[in-house]
Amino acid sequence: MTFDITIPVLNEEASLQQQVGKLHDFVSAHFPDTEQWQIIIADNGSTDQTETLGRALESTFTNVRFLKVPDRGVGLALKTSWSQSRAEIVGYMDLDLATGLDHFLEAYRAIVEKDYDLVYGTRLHPRSRVIGRTLKREISSRVFNWMLRNYLRVGFSDGMCGFKWLKREHYPALYEKGAQNNGWFFSTELLTVAEWLNLRIKELPVVWTDDVSSSRVEIWPLAKKYMQAMRELKGKRLRS
Fold first, then answer.
1. Which among 68, 95, 122 is the end of a domain?
2. Are residues 140 and 230 in the same domain?
3. Which residues contact 72 (CB under 8 A, 6 or more apart)?
4. 71: confidence class by pLDDT, cuts 50, 70, 90
């Protein structure tokens, strides 16, 4: 099956070339048919040299594409990329490649060989291993996911892990039923709506290496945004 890997980026001039090169080498080694896949660099509002470097990567590699997204937001970047895609599988990972790349092969096989509709990485499974995470981030992650399970009545363990893959044929329905947020909460909406639609979901325990030094996340302001987003998503459910 063909697939697109979307990498949302914002002001990533320091690491863009190295990380995209590493990902390209990995995928090329396992999928030598370069017409089978693409890496999409989805730039959502960079003001540094990210665009210049991204377009250079597009010129260097035939299956790397640079996509300029009109505004900021990870959700907007993914929606823009996936709505234009013609691949059979779409998904994303973070530029820091925090999730071990071997897990992509597991996700691909789960969809292709076992016919799952959506595969998501989880850092909260007993078999997962998280490296370098601070206690503050660990507690906030567990509290957030506890809120999701109790407020939205969902069964998945990790709504925010930046590692998700799905059959593209399901994306229009996921969007129509509520996966519409332009920010980080889009990642959680995908899983929530997938459960509402009774899609076949595969939970994938992962090895995750936290890049604390590069994190720009402020937990309390983000938590307030998430709580508002949860209320809006639940409202969509009640109205449908």
1. 95
2. yes
3. 10, 44, 45
4. very high
pLDDT tens digits, one per residue of 93-109: 999 999 999 999 999 99
Write out pLDDT tens, residues 111-144: 999 999 999 999 988 898 989 878 777 787 788 8
Tally Cβ neighbours within 10 Å of residue 194.
24
Query: Is residue 107 located within the same domain as residue 22?
Result: no
Residue ranges of alpha helices (H) inside 31-160 are 50-60, 74-84, 102-112, 135-151
The model carries a pTM of 0.92
What is the secondary structure of 159-175 as a DSSP string? S--SEEEEEGGGHHHHH
Residues in Cβ contact with 174 at an 8 Å cutoff, skipping those fewer than 6 apart:
166, 189, 190, 193, 194, 197
